[in-house]
Amino acid sequence: ARHLTERPGYPNEAGTWHDRAMSIVSNFRAFVAGTGGRRVTTLTPDELPDGVAVEVHWSSVNYKDGLAATPTGKVARIDPIVPGVDLAGVLLDDTPDAPAGSEVIVHGYDLGVARHGGFAEYARVPAEWVVPLPTGLTLREAMVFGTAGYTAAQSVIALEEHGVTPGSGPVLVTGATGGVGSTAVGMLARLGYEVVASTGKPAEADWLRELGAADVIDRAELSTEGGRPLDSMRWAGAVDCVGGTTLANVLARIQYGGSVAASGLTGGNSLPVTVLPFILRGVNLLGIDSVQVPIERRRAVWARMGADLKPAGLDAIGHDITLADLDAVLTAILAGQATGRSVVALRP
Q: Is residue 143 predicted with pLDDT exceeding 50?
């Protein structure tokens, strides 16, 4: 784990990280949501759950955060809640795998859903949720990735594990301007795949090509209901971030033996598909979960995200916001208006 004992402005004597953790006694800023509305407020340490303390430097905005911050989203299990299913910062307590002062990532599990999450200057989390920041990433870069980038990485790895290689043929990414989609485009391009990006935002086509897309198609090609159960084979694999009718139409156009890694439901949670792609073309539908992944697998995926899965255009995917911007950004992400990744800066 990267350690900060020599970093200016941080404790540099034995035991002082623990002292710093115990001294979180003043109010700190946080964004809260619930039946009382959404607002930036102050919390005290007594309002944080039990766990090891993390000084949060960066967080990021995911679709799930939008749901958690909306009473009708039926995601948050406490009220009010500090949303934020991702955070990156400095560990203030020792854990079995990382000493105090280490730069760490925490995401998924119940963070930002059943316990206060990353949209605050401090957090407490179970020690077993902590991922030491891998070599090759800064804390900000880790949050440009966040859960969305982690989901994209898992999707790409799943395609690899099921035999989709750069030589297999073009790979489609749906919802390509979103957090998962844009990161997947960059990762696949970095690995040498021919990437086809599907989007409903034609103004972002040049940006997608900058990320590495070889071709950009209109999402209307895939969103029409009542499509043929089997269509012309076009793609060796796909990363689907949309679901619904789009996923059904993608499955109908995958090459023999190809695979689709599915993680999204912005297009609906039903799947109007027949068994024909599976039993006549041997297509694999691979479900991607980012929440309950065992910690060792989680850490291994992050290691690759700091190495060969780190897109060349990672910085271009993320744009910085503050806690004060969150209300508008959360509304936009639920409306499908987000592009790339909104990264929340918690420290000056």
A: yes
Distance CA 336, CA 97 (A): 38
Question: What is the distance between the alpha carbons of residues 174 and 239, in angstroms, rounded to a whole number?
Answer: 7
For 217, phi then psi, to 5°, come to -120, 160
CA distance 75 to 332: 18
Pairing of strands 195-199, 171-173: parallel
Supply angle C-alpha 99, 306, 235, rounded to 5: 145
User: Using DSSP, how many helices (H) and how many strands (E) does the chain show?
Assistant: 11, 15
Token reading at 127: 């020690």
The encoded tokens of residue 130 equal 């902590």
Length of the chain: 348
Please state the rounded mean pLDDT for residues 138-159.
97
Task: Report d(CA 257, CA 154) in Å as an integer.
Answer: 19
Q: 238-293 pLDDT, tens per residue?
A: 999 999 999 999 999 999 999 999 999 989 999 999 999 999 999 999 999 999 99
Verdict on whether the full-model pTM lies above 0.70:
yes
* CA separation for the pair 260, 194 (Å, rounded): 15
Residue 18, pLDDT score: 53
- Euclidean distance between CA atoms 87 and 54, whole angstroms: 9
Q: Which among 255, 200, 253 has a CA at the least distance from the CA of 223?
A: 200
